[in-house]
Specification:
Blueprint: H1 6-14, H2 19-29, E1 35-36, H3 37-44, H4 48-60, E2 64-69, E3 83-88, H5 102-115, H6 119-143, H7 163-174, E4 178-180, E5 186-188, H8 201-219, E6 224-228, E7 237-241
Antiparallel strand pairs: 1-3, 2-3, 4-5, 5-7, 6-7
Helix pairs in contact: 2-3, 2-4, 3-4, 6-7, 6-8, 7-8
Length: about 240
């Protein structure tokens, strides 16, 4: 039997088939703040009218949500008109035929481990997460142009690429959606494990931190540290370069 919500999932994916619509979606989801029609149009390289049309289609598909705000920051008479802003919605789209429930398995395993957690089991999970992060970092380091032709024992880090930028590239490949914060820190606007956190946040966030620390370690990203600093609408981990706060 097909999933009952399959039509909604397929419609959401179909909404991104148009290349202009994809660019607009990326312009909105790539921003830490809601995006106006004018800004989205500039990012996608299209007219405002075309951007407005496609943005509304993305709202209809459930991929974006809209709101209104005066961008001038003023209120009262003469404050100007409100602008329509767009941000990513909470809709998550996964399509698998036949249906697969890997997320259920992951959630059950996480809850079971949280229920019987001991120092040894938690440490084992964090070691596994760190090892996986190190493999991600090694893969990313191997994709650096300057890494071509280096021996296995040579320094992996490209000195011309800032350490935080290297970490950003690796975390992008993991789905974390890194973005620079106001103080120069690296915020992760998406948590690939967010559905697992219910009832076992401490366990999952600790695993997340270990994975990211593994990425940093294998990249030899000098001076970059990761710490648990939960915040609304983003991953609980924040990355900084030593000395920045």
């Amino acid at each position: 039997m097909l999933p009952h919500d399959l039509p909604q999932r397929l419609e959401a994916l179909a909404a991104l088939a148009d290349p202009v619509r994809r660019r607009l979606y990326e312009a909105v989801t790539g921003s830490a703040d809601p995006v106006s029609r004018d800004r989205a149009a500039r990012s996608a390289g299209v007219s405002r009218a075309l951007a407005a049309f496609h943005l509304e289609k993305l709202v209809d598909a459930g991929l974006l949500e809209s709101s209104f705000k005066r961008l001038s920051g003023r209120t009262g008479p003469g404050a100007g008109r409100t602008s329509k802003l767009y941000a990513r919605s909470g809709l998550r789209v996964d399509v698998s035929l036949p249906e697969r429930r890997y997320e259920w398995a992951a959630h059950m395993l996480a809850r079971a481990l949280a229920d019987v957690s001991s120092a040894e089991s938690v440490a084992a999970l964090q070691r596994s997460a760190r090892a996986h992060g190190e493999s991600v970092g090694r893969e990313q380091a191997g994709q650096e142009p300057s890494a071509v032709g280096r021996s296995a024992n040579s320094e992996r880090r490209d000195p011309e690429v800032p350490s935080l930028e290297q970490a950003k590239r690796a975390l992008e490949s993991c789905g974390f959606e890194p973005a620079e914060g106001a103080a120069g820190e690296l915020l992760l606007r998406n948590c690939p494990f967010d559905r697992l956190r219910d009832g076992c946040r401490e366990l999952v966030c600790g695993m997340n931190l270990s994975l990211i620390e593994g990425v940093i370690s294998s990249l030899a990203a000098e001076g970059v540290t990761a710490s648990l600093e939960p915040g609304p609408g983003r991953c609980c981990v924040v990355l900084r370069v030593a000395g920045e706060r």
